[in-house]
Amino acid sequence: PAPSPSGSGEEGAAGRPLLAEVVVDIAAPDVDRVFHFLIPPALEGRLEVGHRVIVPFGPRRVEGTVVGFTGRAEVPPERLRPVAALQDPVPVLTPALIELARWMEDRYLCLFVQALRAMLPPGARGDRVRLAPRVWVRLTLDPAQAREQAAALARRAPRQAAVLERLAELGPHGAVPQATLLQAAGASPGALKALARKGWIALEEREPALEEPAAAAEPPAPPPPLTPEQEAVWRRLEAVLVAGSSAAGPAGGRVPPGQQGLAGEPFPAGQAASAGSGVAPHGTAGGRPPAAFLLHGVTGSGKTEIYLRAIAAVLAQGQGAICLVPEIALTPQTVARFRARFGNRVAVLHSAMTPAQRLATWRAIRAGRKPVVVGARSAVFAPLPNLGLIVVDEEHETSYKQEETPRYHAREVALARARLEGAAVILGSATPSVETYHRALEGELGLLELAQRVGRRPLPEVEIVDLRQEFEAGHRSLFSRRLLELMRERLAAREQVLLFLNRRGYHTVLLCRECGFVLRCPHCDVSLTVHQLPSGRLVCRCHYCDHRQVPPATCPHCGGVAVHPFGLGTQKVEETARKLFPGARIQRMDADVTARRGSHEAIYRQFAAGRIDVLIGTQMIAKGWDVPGVTLVGVVSADTALHMPDFRRQERTFQLLEQVAGRAGRGPRAGRVVIQTYSPDHPCLQAVARHDYRALFDLEVAERRELGFPPFGHLIRAVVAGPERPPVERAATRLALAWRQAVDDAGVRAGTVTPAAPAPIERLRGRWRWHVLARAADGAALRAATRTALERLRGAWPRDVQVQVDVDP
Ligand code: ADP
Ligand code: ZN
Fold first, then answer.
1. pLDDT digits (tens, 9 = 90+) for 765-777
2. What is the rounded CA–CA span in Å between residue 193 and residue 190?
3. Which residue of 77, 515, 604, 770 is surrounded by the most CB atoms within 10 Å?
4. What is the pLDDT of residue 662?
5. Is residue 754 over pLDDT 60?
6. Helix and strand tally (H, E) in the chain?
7. CB 297 near ligand 1, within 6 Å
């Protein structure tokens, strides 16, 4: 990045000194703006956009972020105060990221400072983590001169001589940490100072070394030749990614920032100007190919290989790339593939890192030392100085949505960021979100398809088993007769089996068979889940607040004694499987088992090595795994997924089941999938049985068009929460009225606001929750009206009551 303007030596526009524009780190609407500060002489020429600073704020000193410079003060000069201190040697954010925070503020109706906070690595704020810079000693003489001087000094100043000799051993420009040198040469800091005064050595502050992974033992794996299908996809990508590529037409190559008009809405006026001009609403501005793509490829079709090629192409041009993966997919396997190709140019950001590791990695990325970043959601903010590409793998994954303020979606942020920085985007999925596929059909995204698995391996055959028939036939096991038969067959052939359940203990509630009473959490209004302790005793737990209680012996409602656990949990399935297959090696993997750090990885390794025959698990076994020994996948019950209270439930069920099915038959033997259900005719399951994404998409689109759901309309949800019910209800009601008024005032097209209602989970962690939903055809207009409504109500909120806004919930 260009060095920043700075210092009082330079002059602002009208001959006034240049001022730093700082956003203070206080999340309050009335201070969510830029404040101006003088740049003290000590920071002259050092301050850059993105730096963390300490500034005086009223009687306090607070942290803040430098977001720009100006010559025009908003307050009289005598009231200007100087920046108090600089927090970081290197800014943690880039100018482009600050621009992106502006976009997020508008898009997600959050505070600017909240958007900035989302971008900072943990550890960058406050003084929880300090990476003390280490002092290094560097030789400025050439080694021969150093030896001469050492000989001359040997008598008079033996310690200085020893230092020079040590450094000379390191060759030209040799450097070592000061602490190491002092110890090795038996020298004192005084000796170093004396040498530095003579100009023979330099003392430099350096970032503490990152914990670098050991350099790959093997040379980087050469990429395999592409399959014909991959080749066709790659040619289209190359035309956009590689400047001057032969495949690029006259208008080919990358489009300058702001000129692309990728998916989504244009930037609000005023911000588009700084990102360039002429943001087109659709992807084909001026006949150029769009620089954002949907790569729709069935599981195992070689999408990852395409990402690796694209990243390599970007690196070859001196640019960097981010590859987003769902957290759960950050398996050693994924990471290993990136490291095998790009060695230690790869930075991996994952949730198990300590704040210090994260901060150190962030800085290495910012300094350009790690041009390939692989990570989950928040890696979309990785401060690469020269970004060329963002890949979003499994773009449909729900984990890309952040469920706390700012409630952003990493896929949308990726598209916006790429547009700001002139980078390309690849969204990859076997089961794209309906919104993304719709954009591709509309031409906002280039559509790339891989319809076949690599090596022409067939997709697994899917059988749907009707559990109603099992019941009629008097077969009461968790495993249908067909599933049992196939399990026996596959285990006999020494092949591996995956058994999948929608969620851990999902259905295991404590139920009274006499009156139907279900035991619920006293704080959260959800049913408690029954778990079995290793001792065999049962405990009821809330999955939201972790409330625990011993199951009552009699029904609290009717006093009956027939209260029993009911439903399926992974534990129950494990127990049953052990009884049915006593000789098999059976392992369960769910959130309970993997709560211990590293056990997810350990189980995966065992399974991949063939030391587990039957693995029983939840979502976490569905994604990204590539274990060739798996030839059978059993979905114990598809019904829970089909009955979620969510307008995306069909899409989600399809995605989940395709994902699970994709684990079967990745090796030489064909895979098979058995789905057990009480709704065998459900069109969504039928689509899974045929691996027919388009059938699912058409089904969804028809319904959503009718109802005005995304992608045909925009939704905003507001949740009002507080410790007492009546004020929450009153506040929610007032919000609904003000919101409707604002929508009407602005004449928002097809704008509707629901009356206030209790949220699906009315009590959560001891708080009452009500919600209001607004819907409109025009997202920007709806957001503007929402802002108006919230501003009108600001200050009128009862104490203790908060409102949280979720755009595109
Ligand atoms: P996806 O990401 O679509 O699931 P992958 O990229 O993981 O697919 O590819 C599936 C398997 O095929 C992997 O084991 C991968 O190494 C292999 N593969 C991918 N492309 C090729 C190719 N062109 N030649 C040989 N093997 C390939
Ligand atoms: Zn609870």
1. 889 999 998 999 9
2. 5
3. 770
4. 83
5. yes
6. 23, 31
7. yes
The reply to whether ligand 1 has any atom less than 6 angstroms from the CB of 253 is no
Q: Is the dihedral of CA 402, 407, 413, 417 positive or negative?
A: negative
Angle at CA 644, nearest 5°, toward 641 and 648?
Answer: 90
Of 50, 41, 45, the closest CA to residue 6 belongs to 45
At 312, is the secondary structure helix, strand, or coil?
Answer: helix
In Å, what is the CA distance from 152 to each residue of 10, 80, 146, 181? 47, 55, 10, 20
Average pLDDT of span 648-652: 86
For residues 539-545, give the mean pLDDT: 76
Q: What are 322's strand-pairing partners?
A: 373, 390
The SS3 assignment for 245 reads coil
**How far does the centroid of ligand 2 lie from the alpha carbon of residue 510, in Å?**
15
Contact 616, 571 (CB under 8 A): no
Q: Is the CB of 65 under 6 A from ligand 1?
A: no
Helix (H) or strand (E) holding 37: strand 34-38
- Tell me if 545 sits within 8 A of 523, measured CB to CB: yes
Q: Decide: 545 and 504 in contact? Cβ < 8 Å.
A: no
Closest C-alpha to ligand 1, atom 6 = 302
In sequence order, the 6+-apart residues with CB closer than 8 A to the CB of 437 are 294, 296, 693, 697
Closest CA to 773 of 707, 722, 724: 707
Q: How far is CA 460 from the centre of its chain?
A: 30
DSSP 57: E
ipTM: 0.96
Q: What is the pTM of this model?
A: 0.77
Give the DSSP H or E segment for 342. Answer: helix 332-342
